[in-house]
Design goal:
This protein has 153 residues and is mainly α. The chain is built from 4 helices and 2 strands, in the order αββααα. The protein has helices at 5-42, 114-118, 123-128, 131-134; strands at 73-75, 78-80. The chain has a two-stranded antiparallel ribbon with strand order 1-2. A hairpin with a 2-residue loop joins strand 1 and strand 2. The relative contact order is 0.05.
Length: 153
């Protein structure tokens, strides 16, 4: 049971609703019993299984000369059945297409040091330099004026 005043206020709404439902069920119980007794008198359950259900009578098979061998029929302009000569193949599994190739070839463009590139450094210096990820200040081969440093040569 709730202990705080706020919990009691919240619980009160639930309690009132549950109380209304239980009172309604209790008052309808007498009426329900009376209605069941009346239904038993009017239509007993034991006789329900003896009744036969009438099924619709089916159509007779048409004469063989009236039938045609085409499995598809046109009714009101709509083809019903399957047409063997125009059968649509089942859809295949949808897959994602191939990726678009990169411009200038299929490989990813390699990053290079901008200072080595501007100063005319070779392939070895441009792609192996520390300035690739850190910017031109971290270049290992050239200083700010484009003069080659000799400690890494």
């Amino acid at each position: 049971f709730p202990k705080l005043p706020v919990h009691i206020r919240v619980y009160r709404k639930k309690w009132e609703k549950n109380r209304r439902v239980s009172n309604c069920v209790r008052s309808a119980k007498d009426k329900s019993i009376t209605l069941r007794g009346l239904n038993e008198v009017l239509q007993p359950r034991s006789g329900a299984s003896e009744q036969q259900v009438l099924h619709p009578i089916g159509f007779e098979e048409p004469a063989p000369q009236a039938r045609h061998n085409n499995p598809a029929e046109v009714v009101g302009g709509t083809m019903i059945g399957s047409d063997i000569c125009n059968e649509v193949p089942p859809p295949g599994k949808k897959t994602r297409g191939k990726d678009r190739p990169k411009s200038g070839g299929s490989q990813k463009r390699r990053r290079k040091c901008t200072r080595c590139h501007e100063s005319g450094g070779g392939e070895r210096t441009m792609y192996d330099c520390g300035g690739i990820g850190g910017g031109p200040r971290r270049c290992d081969y050239y200083d700010d004026d484009g003069v080659r440093r000799c400690y890494k040569c």
